[in-house]
Structure formats: structure tokens, C-alpha cells
Amino acid sequence: MVDRAGTLVRDAFEQPTSNVETKSSNTDLVTETDKAVEELLIRGLSKEFPDHKFIGEESVSGGQKVELTDAPTWIIDPIDGTTNFVHRIPLIGICVGLAIKKQLRAGIVYNPITRELFSAQKGKGAFKNGFPIHVSKTEACSNAVVVTQIGSIRTPEMMNSFVQSFNSVIGDKQAHAHRAFGSAAINMVYVAQGSIDAYVEYGLHCWDIAAAAMILKEAGKPFNLMGRTVLCAGTPSLAKELSSALTHVEMETEGDA
Ligand code: LIP
């Protein structure tokens, strides 16, 4: 099913951009392809699992409540990195996560452009195109490639956090490099495969992170799915050092969590 969704996204990626709409703000984009992919995934999964529930980015934009209950729930972001998709930057992820009793059980992040399929199931490890992946062993910020990302929320608090944290991590601590790939899921699976050492972003939603969080969790990282913040790193000492260098933003949890 994710395969079919991938074909849909790849076909659209090869055509000129059309039908871009904005949602909560001018920096929050959606396309016909986002909606079509979400519909395809929900239709297909409901057929196989009629009792299961769904949290989908575009369904929530259409007015559905974010409700994570004990029921098996598929958490879907049809295209994580919609702005990349709109600008034809090939860093996007079709994200499908499964939570049962509010615990993540499985996750898939598929980049249909690069044909990289990241997957994990609880207790079975994390994989890319079938091969095991692992987080990096980097301990110190001065040896790390760090992703700090700002999303669609550009409040003064958010901007201040981003700029202060950038100065502190990249300037004061002299991290090896700064990157930002424009998709929470891609940032996270890159931590999972050890290409980058750490990633921080505030203001995310559960659909941005659920599938990739499962992949990271398989590397032993605890995760608050509804917390709207990601701070992940290959090692606990890097996470600790980074956390003390960041200007944090307090986020309210999502839904009733
Ligand atoms: C996007 C994220 C991106 C983040 C944006 C947004 P979308 O998701 O993956 O990294 O910075 O705030 O949430 O809207 O492309 O699915």
C-alpha cells in the first residue's frame, strides 16, 4: 500500500507543481497529492482493519479531532516535508505509524523519490531497505552533525529559540556541522541510521513523528509521541550536552494526552 502511495507521490513529483494551498498560515502548505495519498492509505487500511482508528494530518486539517485512545490507531502523514515536495526537493517521507494502547508498535517512513524505505516493529530492530540501521556513537557536540529545524510556527519565542540555539550549538560549541532537511521524519530516520548525530525541533505533531519515532525507539530512545517536541541523539551524553545548550520552547501536549 505504501508502495502505491509512493508511485502516486513520485508521479506528481515529476509534474509541474500545481494546486498548492495554505492551511494554518502562509508557511503551512498542502497539495492535492497530500490529500490523495492520505485517502488511499486510510481506505486501504480500513478495508483490512475495519475496527482500527486513524489520525491523519489532512483529516485533522479537515476538522477531525486528534484522539489517541487504547484502540489500534494508524498515525499518518501522507507527505512529511510538503514544502520540500512543493519545491521539488527530494527529501520527503510517507509516514505510517501504528500505536496500540498508546504505545508505538510499527512504523514505516518511505521516501519514494530516493526509494529509501525505513521500517521498524517493536522489538525487532530498525531497517533501511531491509538492512539493519543504528544510531551514531558520537558523544560530544564538537564532533556532531546537528539538525535544528524551524517549522511553520514563526512566533517570536520560536524564532528566539532557533537563533539562540543555533548560536550556542554551532557557534559556541562548534559542532561539526548544521543541517536541516525540511522533514521531521527524514531528520529522525537520519539520526536512526547515524548520518546525523542529533536533531531538535519544536511544534511538531504526532503524525510528523510517530512512524520515525518507532524507528528511533528501536534504537532504545524513549519518546513522548504527543509532546510536540523532538530532541533525539545517537548517545545520551550528546542529548544531555545539547539539551543544556538549547533555548527550549515549552509546548502543550497534543489532543487529550
Ligand atoms: C513538516 C515537518 C517539518 C517541520 C514542519 C512541518 P509537513 O510537516 O516535517 O520538518 O519543520 O513544521 O510539520 O507539514 O510537511 O507534513
UniProtKB/TrEMBL annotation:
Top-level EC class as recorded in UniProt: hydrolase
Record has Magnesium as a keyword: yes
Involved pathway(s): Polyol metabolism; myo-inositol biosynthesis; myo-inositol from D-glucose 6-phosphate: step 2/2
Keywords of this entry: Hydrolase, Magnesium, Metal-binding
Cofactor(s) required for function per UniProt: Mg(2+)
EC number annotated for this UniProt entry: 3.1.3.25
One GO process term, biological-process aspect: phosphatidylinositol phosphate biosynthetic process
Stored InterPro entries: IMPase, Inositol_monoP_metal-BS, Inositol_monoPase_Li-sen, Inositol_monophosphatase-like
Chain positions recorded as Mg(2+) binding sites: 57, 77, 79-80, 208
UniProt-listed Gene3D superfamilies: 3.40.190.80, Fructose-1,6-Bisphosphatase, subunit A, domain 1
Record-stated family: Belongs to the inositol monophosphatase superfamily.
PANTHER family the record matches: INOSITOL MONOPHOSPHATASE, INOSITOL-1-MONOPHOSPHATASE-RELATED
Stated name of the protein: Inositol-1-monophosphatase
Species this chain originates from: Acrobeloides nanus
